[in-house]
Amino acid sequence: MATASLKRRLALPVTALALAAGTTIALAANSSAAPSPNALSSVWYASAPYLMPEDNSPPDVSAVMDATGQKAFQLAFILAPNGGGCSPTWGGTSPIGSDSTIPSVISTIRGKGGDVSVSVGGYGGTKLGQTCGTVAATAAAYQQVVDKYGLKAIDFDLEEPEYENTQAIANELGAAQALQKNNPGLYVSVTMPGTNAGTGWFGTQLLDQAKSIGFTPANFSIMPFDGGFSGAAAQVSALEAFHGLLVSHMGWDSTTAYQHEGVSMMNGRTDASEYFYQADFQTVLDYATSHGLARYTYWSVNRDRQCNPPSNNGQLSGACSSVPQNDWDFTKFTAKFAGVATPPPPPNSSTTSTSPSTSPSTSPSTSPSTSTSSSPGGTCSAAPWSSSTAYSGGAIVSYNSHTWTAKWWTQGDTPGANTQNVWQDNGACGGGGSSSTPPAGTCTLALWNSATAYSGGAVVQYGTPAHKWTAKWWTQGDTPGSNSSGVWTDGGVCGS
């Protein structure tokens, strides 16, 4: 059962905490109309972090895009009018027909090659599913939002107090299904509270309702926080439990369930005084990418900056995280997800989306540079790797006489280092093979460590004689060669 602690969906007071010096909180430049949406891959909508453009000291979204490479954002929240009725408003107070702030923000994002999704619902407030009365009326209200902003994606964030209202949830899911049918290619996500068991009783009822009407969104996402969670291990456990619920309630096989599962986290201090740090986001990211999850996002970009003091201040803010960080640290994880994950296309889509269609504006071209550099392994035509450059997935560089290809967005990860496993070694410039295959009879791979968290694709050595082992998915503490998990693939004796 959802609890009253899910306050992260409300506009939180920011006067109690002073923002760190130098933090930019300016709104996007004024604009009366948003440009036509860009044709982004669905993976960007799957990675879109939540942003409140009208509450919680909105950040300069242009600066966020430049610093992280993130292209899509989840604008929150559409509600019913505070006085009642069935017309969409921002936060219950600003009708979409007269609001001027949101078009300005959308214009800025689309002007930089990005796009937006809009989230309806959230925690607190009155939802359209409660006031519109029928599926058709609810769908018509949301269609106004889709048409107004030319949306390619929409999120149904189904929480309190609507979450426990059977008819309201039926209206919301029925409306989501109608939007999906009437707007081919529309990316529809459904977000709900998470528990240590995956989700609560009302969450399973939500799944049963979706199954009964034949509704399959791009994903069902849980929020594993504010429920007694302790770090990433508890979140991963909840996601595994939710995976089981998707199998049993939706009737999917395991692979299909992962392909329609998502996670929505909260950065820093939560409403329930839980703390989630950058390392927790990395662990969940590794799990999400290695299991093929369809969505990875968080609440919220407004909070993705350091408070003053940075941590242990005993307070919750809607405008900073209450943990030590650099500005936009957590948004960089959603950008990484967009560079590595390939969720299935939304239902009714006539095309299959794979990798992002465009690279972050801060990234270099993925084509080899025309400059060359001489090295013992031959002539490297790719540009030399730079620790200060942000690279998108597919970018090609040269380093230590080898050519390397980025698997996803990265900055500061040294090619050949095993910390992130982001760079694919293409071998010595001009030929000569890959350094990931050690010479016969030798093993230059990192030793397996029971305390290290490995992502899918990580390569280690273990055993006597030393064998090369490759992780199939995220793992920690599973001994290579053990039959208990089957996570490690034996590549044979090193060099053989």
TrEMBL record:
Residues 45-327 form the GH18 domain. Gene3D superfamilies: Carbohydrate-binding module superfamily 5/12, Glycosidases. Residues 349-376 have a biased composition (Low complexity). Residues 1-28 form the signal peptide. Keywords: Hydrolase, Signal. Residues 339-379 are annotated as: Disordered. InterPro entries: CBM5/12 (IPR003610), CBM_sf_5/12 (IPR036573), GH (IPR017853), GH18_Chitinase (IPR052750), Glyco_hydro18_cat (IPR001223). The keyword Transmembrane helix does not apply. PANTHER family: BIFUNCTIONAL CHITINASE/LYSOZYME-RELATED, GH18 DOMAIN-CONTAINING PROTEIN-RELATED. This is Chitinase.
